[in-house]
Give the backbone structure.
Amino acid sequence: MALFDRYLGACVYDVVTSQWPGLHRALDTRIKLPNGHINFEKFWQLAKQVTEFIAWKQVACPFEKNPRVIAFLQASPVLTENTLALASFECEPPDNNPEKERYKALK
């Protein structure tokens, strides 16, 4: 059974990472163990979050759609992780050494 669980986990992992580009980096550092196995507890937590997200997407919005807001959101650029981090530091300056080093690297 354990072999099947590992195989199933690896298949689900491959499907998830192929469907959401960029997610593989987070999964590799948080879910994959150094020996290549999958940390099922963390993978289960991720699955719960994905399930909640899918359920949230299916909820009907009680507000009327505003075409100007939709146009703005569709025309807004998609920011990279580094650009978002830099914007965050500009709003709230870094207050510890790791944040200060990250801020220097981003500049």
Remarks:
- Helices lie at 2-19, 23-30, 40-57, 67-75, 81-91, 97-106.
- Residues 1-5 have pLDDT under 50 and may be disordered.
